[in-house]
Write a structure and sequence with these properties.
Elements (H helix, E strand, L loop, with lengths): L2 H5 L3 H4 L35 H12 L19 H9 L12 H17 L9 E5 L1 H23 L8 E5 L4 H9 L3 E5 L21 E7 L11 H15 L5 E4 L7 H4 L12 E7 L11 E5 L11 E5 L2 E5 L9 H38 L3 E3 L8 E6 L9 H9 L7 E3 L8 E6 L6 H19 L17
Helix pairs in contact: 4-10, 5-10, 10-12, 11-12
Length: 473
């Protein structure tokens, strides 16, 4: 054998050719598609190797931020390996197809019954609930039920149903603005102020009238994490009913607090123990600890959900009741929720939520000690808190600049203006979720102190052009 024979490609090598005819034994990043561009906005003309397509998508996704360091979002970013296995095994399940997946449907019912009991429904077996795509859909369904109940009651008395309104805090989550817009309901915003930092029943009589379909009470305001006092709001509505006869129900938006308060503040009356609460929604992919997207909504009794809103659907050979804005949707997250209910139980949820709250209180305490900042709240409701720049502390920088400095270290901590009446106040907010350990929190504090020290050494004001608020629900 000659030297030329040793370096000549063998026939077996030519057998491993890709779709382009190039040698598949080339290193990955020499393949077509890795060494050249895929079209970005048009469908590629031909096929590519699955390994190449995977690598392209994988590499693009690396450009996203590190989700564990994203302290802007409430959405869960970590689940254990067994949950990930369940997720992979059940990714094909369609939640709407209860005839094909009856056990997943049964598990959905078990989950909302567990929540009905957790939220002290008078008789969980006489309650009714459903899973949703996140808490925004759950809020929409809760709002629709309020509107339809009001319409039915007005029609029974021969009264007009032309001008429904809904009472909301000015710090309400944007899904309620969408609800009012999409379903022609007038939103009546009660402004938050320095004296009334949340909707607390103060001056509620100025907003309620015969066309009010309900009041939304938020367990964990997205701007700050504070609870709105449901019992105090209900007491104000009791007084209004005594004076006017208006019987106004409450929907509790427990997107975050619905899975915190039962464990960390078990004696707080915010749920179905308050008789005026007709429905409660929560986000399973927030402090329910499930990957997105899953929500739950539950009504106190079957009578609180007008039967006119529930459709009997024939689908793929079976009959099923349906009350949802979406039709086909993933069933995997429902199974993940059930896994967590079994895996953690009440005690496990308590420990997980308490650990998050402890980290939030630690961070709030340390930030509160810094002369640059004044705390808005301390993280003892849901594990979320906000702060503002101390009045007169500096003219050289603001919280948007601090947010940008922290982003250089990978931390996403938004700065944003408060809602109307307080829009001249800018705050910064941290959301502590399962996965932000005490060690990471201590590292964050080092980075915050370092960033503030850098900004404090500025001899002239930082430019403000192009600064963008980073508020994230």
């Amino acid at each position: 054998m000659t030297t030329e024979d040793l370096i000549k490609p063998s026939e077996s090598t030519h057998a491993f050719t890709g779709l382009s005819g190039q040698n598949q034994l080339n290193p990955l990043f020499c393949r077509e598609g890795e060494s050249s561009d895929f079209p970005l906005n048009t469908l590629p003309q031909g096929e590519s190797l699955p390994e190449t397509a995977y690598q392209v998508v994988h590499d693009e996704a690396m450009l996203d931020g590190n989700s564990r360091l994203n302290l802007a979002t409430f959405v869960g970013t970590w689940m254990d390996e067994k949950a990930q296995r369940i997720y992979a095994e059940s990714a094909d399940k369609n939640m709407v197809d209860k005839d094909e997946y009856p056990q997943t449907a049964a598990i959905e019912t078990r989950c909302w019954l567990m929540l009905a009991n957790l939220w002290h429904a008078p008789d969980a077996n006489n309650a009714i609930g459903t899973s949703t795509i996140g808490s925004s859909e759950a809020c929409m369904l809760g709002g629709l039920a309020l509107k339809r109940r009001w319409q039915l009651a007005r029609r029974a008395k021969g009264l007009s149903t032309e001008k429904p309104n809904l009472i909301l805090s000015s710090a309400v989550q944007v899904c309620w603005e969408k609800f009012c817009n999409y379903w022609d309901v007038e939103p009546r915003y009660v402004p938050i102020t320095d004296e009334h930092k949340v909707l607390d029943g103060h001056d509620l009589d100025k907003y309620v009238d015969e066309n009010t379909i309900g009041v939304v009470a938020i367990m964990g305001v997205t701007y700050t994490g504070m609870y709105e006092p449901v019992a105090a709001i209900a007491a104000a509505l009791d007084r209004i009913q005594a004076d006017t006869g208006f019987d106004i129900p409450i929907h509790v938006d427990g997107a975050s607090g619905g899975m915190i308060a039962p464990f960390l503040q078990p004696d707080l009356r915010w749920d179905f123990r308050v008789e005026r609460v007709a429905s409660i929604s929560t986000s399973a992919h927030k402090y329910g600890l499930v990957y997105p997207g899953l929500g739950w909504v539950i009504w106190r009794t079957v009578d609180d959900l007008p039967k006119e809103l529930v459709f009997d659907v024939t689908y793929l050979g079976g009959h099923m009741p349906s009350f949802a804005l979406n039709f086909s949707r993933p069933g995997a997250q429902v199974l993940l929720q059930y896994y967590l209910f079994l895996r953690l139980g009440f005690d496990g949820y308590y420990r997980v939520q308490k650990a998050s709250q402890d980290v939030a209180v630690y961070l709030a305490t340390e930030i509160g000690k810094m002369p640059a900042f004044d705390l808005w709240n301390d993280g003892t409701d849901i594990p979320v808190f906000a702060w503002q720049l101390s009045k007169g502390y500096t003219q050289n920088w603001n919280l948007y600049h601090l947010s940008e400095r922290l982003r250089l270290k990978g931390w996403l901590i938004p700065a944003y203006p408060m809602p109307d009446n307080l829009s001249d106040i800018t705050v910064q907010r941290i959301v502590v979720r399962n996965g932000l350990s005490r060690n990471l929190a201590e590292s964050l504090m080092l980075d915050i102190r370092e960033a503030v020290d850098y900004l404090d050494r500025l001899e002239s004001p930082m430019p403000t052009e192009g600064l963008v608020g980073g508020f994230t629900h």
